[in-house]
Amino acid sequence: MMRLALVFLLALLTLPAAAVIETYEFSSPELEARYRQLSQELRCPKCQNQNIADSNAPISEDLRRLLYRQLEAGATDEEILEDMVRRYGEFVRYRPDFDRNTALLWLAPVLFLAVGAGLAVLVLRRARGGGSPALDSEEQARLEALLAERDRAE
Fold it and tell me: 17, 76, 82, 146: which has the fewest Cβ within 10 Å?
């Protein structure tokens, strides 16, 4: 058991070695801050579940290099994002703009919540009013006769 814990701790120590190390020299701290923010917002086209800041894929290296060049050339954040979307599609953004192509993506959580709430209301209404229906006098007499017969048999 102790060996397993030691192996686990050693494995955790190797995680920083897999991190991406950037060596870009920025002309100002503001550009570096914008670079960090934009690289967190852009998705790796290959990895699909990582941003370009965390990905070691060659395409992410290219995107980081392109991002650096565009920032140093004076492009605004909006210009950079538009260029990336033009090249790679809206998928490259973790938070795509709301338009007719991405409306379902943005509205799906609200729709799922509405459907879930509607189903919950239906189930609760059915549970409250779902008691057994009242018996008419003939059915009540038959039930009493069956219960009396059972009691005699015991």
Answer: 17
For 77-120, what is each residue's pLDDT tens digit?
A: 999 999 999 998 888 887 777 878 778 878 899 999 999 999 99
Q: What are the backbone dihedrals phi and psi of residue 34, each rounded to the nearest 5 degrees, phi first?
A: -65, -40
The three-point CA angle 50-52-55 to 5° equals 60
Q: Specify the CATH architecture of the domain 7-92.
A: Orthogonal Bundle (1.10)
Radius of gyration of the chain (CA): 32
Q: Is 137 helix (H, G, I), strand (E, B) or coil?
A: helix
Domain ranges of the chain: 7-92, 103-153
Q: Which residues contact 53 (CB under 8 A, 6 or more apart)?
A: 20, 36, 39, 40, 64
Beta bridge partners of 93: 42
Residue 63: which pLDDT band, with cuts at 50, 70 and 90? very high
DSSP string, 22-87: -----SSHHHHHHHHHHHHHBBPTTTSSSBTTT--SHHHHHHHHHHHHHHHTT--HHHHHHHHHHH
Q: Would the pTM of this model clear 0.85, i.e. be above it? A: no
